[in-house]
Amino acid sequence: MGDLAQDFDLLLKTAHEAANLALSFWGRPVSHERKPDGTSVSEADKAVDRMLAARLASARPDYGWLSEESPEHTSRLAARRVWVLDPIDGTRDFLQGGSDWTIALSLVEDGTPVLAAVINPVRGEVFEAQAGAGAYLNAQRINTSRQNELTGARVAVSAAALTKKPWRAPWPGAVAVGANSTIYRMALVASARADVAFALSPKWEWDIAAGALLVSEAGGTVTSVSGAPLAFNSAEAKVQGFVAAAPDLHQMLIERWR
Prior knowledge:
Elements: H1 4-25, E1 32-34, E2 40-42, H2 43-59, E3 64-67, E4 81-89, H3 91-95, E5 102-109, E6 112-120, E7 125-130, E8 135-137, E9 140-142, E10 154-155, E11 175-176, H4 182-190, E12 196-199, E13 203-204, H5 209-217, E14 221-223, E15 238-239, E16 242-245, H6 247-257
Parallel strand pairs: 3-4, 10-11
Antiparallel strand pairs: 1-2, 4-5, 5-6, 6-7, 7-8, 8-9, 12-16, 13-15, 14-16
């Protein structure tokens, strides 16, 4: 296996190249189609995925590969290190000319994210993290918020998510902070621009892995909705929901749906 420092350099360089490629498609008509699960895939997603494979998979042929827009490579299940990535997270937002979409790349080792690069090209934001070395936004160290109560907490979900579920108790003055990308919602938590992000339904691993490392390295807590640790590179490539939050809020949230 390659050296993690070299892998990180490769990841960051590739993420920047992918961001520039995606940005070259943004803001103009782009062909797209519906996938069997009802989500959209565009020519931009496919172009970025091809470029990522050419750079990352070819540079580390012994690593596994798990990408939203690539065919399944079951050989990844036997690999210790696996690239887990989403060429464009927030494709619908991308197609609508929005600014929430991101390039989300991560390296998972033995089921745990160890490297992450998340770029929001429109806003010029580069989030990065290495296991044990902290999380950064545009080269500045970031930390999760110190929010310790639900009243006034900024929750990175749609406003409907706070009202449509049969919660055991109402959300006391929580404020919804919308973003049309799961990874970007997690990045908002990592950078203390939101206090909480969650999903109660299963999510693809490429929607979560990079964000999970950003939040944990920024001092937050990320688990399943039951409070269990998240594990990646599973056969189904899904996690059963997640909760990413400032540490003082996390247990309160788990209790809300336990």
